[in-house]
Each structure stands twice: as C-alpha cells, then as structure tokens.
Amino acid sequence: MKFPGQRKIKHYFPVSQPKPVLPTSEVQPDKDTYIVGLDETIVDVVANVSDEFLNTFNIKKGLSNLVDADTASAIYKELTAQGCISDHFAGGTIGNTIHNYSVLADDKSVLLGVMSANITLGSPAYHYICHTSSKVDMNHLQGVPGDIGRGITLITSDGERTFAIAPGDMDELNTDHIPENIIAGAAALVTCAYPLRHQGKPIKSAMIEALKYAHKHHVPTVLTLGTKHLVEEHKEELLKLIKSYVSVLAMNELEAEALTGLSDPLQAANAILNHVDIVLLTVGPDGMYLCGHTDDEQKRETTNPIKSGGLADFNRWEFSRPMIREACSKPIKVFSHIDPYMGGPEKIRNTNGAGDGALSALLHDISANHFHKETIPNSSKHSAPFLAYSSFAQICKYSNRVSYEILAQNASRLSRGLPEREDSLEEAYWER
C-alpha cells in the first residue's frame, strides 16, 4: 500500500521492499489490505445542454430522474445528433470512490454489484471496465443477462447537474453474491443510500446483508447519502440504518439539512455525530468539514488559527486522530474545516465526483491505519483504538486536494495519483 503522504519518520512503513510472492489481481482476505464497495454499476454519459433540452424531455433540473429505456435512447440519440456529448465514464458514486481509492493507494479494492454476462464493444459494460482501475477486483460481480445502468449527466450553462438514469439490470444484485469472507477481511465497507429507492429490487436486501456482515465482523461501514430528495423521501429508514450500522457518514450540506433539519453545516454535523463515528461534509465553494470523536486523553490542540461558526472554537482539537466513539472512555467531538484548495480551480466544468474524491482520500487513510496496525501492531501509533492513520486536519487537507484534482478535470474519476504531499508540523507534533 502507498501511504497518504511522505513518511520519513519512525512510524513510516517502507513500501518499496520486494514482496515475497507475485501479486494477484484477486483479493486475498488473509493477505491483502483492501476496501469493499457495493454499488449500482452504471456508465455516465456526460453532455452539455440547455434548459430547453431538459424541458423537451420533461427532465426536472438538478434532480436524479429515472427514465425508461426508450426515453434514455431518445435522449442519447438527440445528444449525439446535436454533438453535446463530451465523454463516457464509468460511474456510480461508490464505483467512483473505490476506483479513486485504488489509484491513490495503488492497491486493491473489491466491487460488489452486477455486470453484463456478455460484453460487446461499445456497450455500457465495456465502457465501465475500460474506465475502472485494474486494481479494482471485479471477480465477485454478479452476471446479468441485460445491460448495466446508463446515467446521462446533463450539465447546463450554470454548472447545475441533472441526471437521467436508465437502470437496466443494475438493481438485480442479490444476497447470494455478497461474500461474507471478503467483507470480514476488509479495512472498510462503503455503500450508498441509492438502493433504498428500489423497494422491490433485490439490491436493497443485498446492501442490508453487506451492512450486517460488516457490523458482525467490526468492519468500519461508510455510507453516502445520495441526494437531498432521496434523504427527504426515506429519512426515517435512513436514520434507522445509520443508527444500526454506519460508522462514517458522507454527504453535502443539502443532504445534511434534509437529514437533521439544520441549515448550518456545523450544527448538522454535531447532531449526526450522536449516531456515527465520523462525518464528512462537503459544502461546495465553502470547502469541507471532517468531524468525529476522540478520547479526552488523546486530544491534541491545533496550532492553526482557531475558528468559530455555528460552534465556538470548533477546530481546537483538530490535530487529534479519529476514534470509534464507543471505544472512548470519555469521548469528545472534534471538528475540522478547510477552504477549497488554492481557492478552487479557475474554471469548474463539472462538479460530478468531487465528493467521491474526498471520501476516497478518507478511506485511504482508514485503510492505511488498518494496514499499519496489521503489520506493526506494537507501534505507538496504535496505543488507542484509532479509526484513521492521520489527524482530522491532515485528512481534511488530503481530501481537499483530491477534490480539487477532480474539479480541475472534466471527469468524475482520477486518471492518476496525486503528487506526494509534504508532512506538516502536525506530524512532528504527533511524534512527541
């Protein structure tokens, strides 16, 4: 595993040493460090359109619109005729996240979902595989007779994203294709709330089964909320799911408000922390928050300027490392905030995938902690049940940098790793 940053201190674990056996593409739970992602496998078709185009096909702006196969084909045909399509990408919020994770960590991840049993050139399944990292293990996908999903991302001149989604067979994933041993050996399980929309489809039961396996084996479980309207429609069911199984909750400010009724991001995060260990909250041009818990004995005060907002002096302990709330003898809440890297790109053509990029960086840090603990269990880095390798503030920097990379390109997935970041004075702080 490639660690997140340059590690030239005593806790650094060298990754340049030759491995004793040849690497395999398939995950080996007893040997590998990896994360597992469960997703609706879908290909994104990205196009720039006018508001009139949306009205023509009765597509509601800014929302995820489910359309039938015929409507999707008609939209695609018209986009092709007008020359509006910029590219095809493998999509899905979790597919994006685990792809980015494998690029950042230069290591394995596992994708659970469906895939067309027969793949032809130019098909959605073909585009999906072509745009997914070779380090993503697809050996546990469920074969289906039809196509995977096709999501058409329609971007208007104001930068707003609207989705027209033709599901295909993407929601046919069943519980028989949820491998307990693979989840049990993972550093984390990550999935999304989208399957809750499909009450009559097997993917919902498959997602619940995966969450139960992760909970049973004490594997950190990460959930992303999808969209504001999904949260509003399934709020009670989501809250029940979060309280029962979720360790890390990722969302934007609109989804946080829909879940808590609080418009202030800090106040919303504070409320959600009563149910989960970590909250990753992106707030668009205002940057992002990473919030969680640490034990009072393990808290570390920041040397950065103290900030106040919805909570006074909220970032005072941001040099602390995230911990599992139930493992803290005296848990305290920790909040960290960061503005967009370099003020954000000069021109943002597509915001699709920015939040997924931030989450992949957090997952990288969680898995790095898992890897280091498995390899050097007696290290002082593991003197307490920490959930991540770095501090809240350092993870914020890393997630922010990955989001910037996504925003600076016209694609929802990283095509290459990031330049190694320099370790800050904060790292030296932790060595004292």
Walkthrough of the structure:
By secondary structure, the protein is an alpha/beta fold. The protein folds into two domains: 30-219, 3-Layer(aba) Sandwich (UDP-N-acetylmuramoyl-L-alanine:D-glutamate ligase), CATH 3.40.1190; 251-432, no CATH class. It contains 13 helices and 16 strands. The chain has a nine-stranded mixed β-sheet with strand order 7-5-1-11-12-13-14-15-16, with helices on both faces. Helix 3 crosses helix 11. The longest helix is centred in the last third of the chain and has 22 residues, at 354-375. The model is unreliable at 421-432 (pLDDT under 50).
Structural descriptors:
single chain; 432 residues; alpha/beta; UDP-N-acetylmuramoyl-L-alanine:D-glutamate ligase; 2 domains; 13 helices; globular; disordered C terminus; ATP-binding; magnesium
Short note summarizing the structure:
This protein is an alpha/beta fold and 432 residues long. The chain has helices spanning 51-56, 69-82, 93-105, 124-130, 180-184, 202-216, 228-233, 235-245, 253-260, 265-272, 354-375, 392-407, 425-430; strands at residues 35-38, 42-48, 64-66, 85-90, 109-112, 114-116, 136-137, 142-144, 149-155, 161-166, 188-192, 221-224, 248-252, 278-282, 288-295, 331-338. The chain is 32% helix and 19% strand.
Number of domains: 2
Q: In the CATH hierarchy, what is the class of the largest domain? A: Alpha Beta
Given helix and strand content, the structural type is: alpha/beta
Largest sheet: 9 strands, mixed
Question: By CATH's scheme, which homologous superfamily of the largest domain applies?
Answer: Ribokinase
Report the sheet-strand fraction: 15-25%
What share of residues is helical?
Answer: 25-40%
Radius of gyration, in Å, reads 21 Å
Shape: globular
Number of helices, counting only DSSP H or I runs of 4 residues or more: 13
Q: Low-confidence runs (pLDDT<50, min 5 residues)?
A: 421-432
Q: What is the CATH topology classification name of the largest domain?
A: UDP-N-acetylmuramoyl-L-alanine:D-glutamate ligase
CATH architectural type of the largest domain: 3-Layer(aba) Sandwich
Mean pLDDT: 87
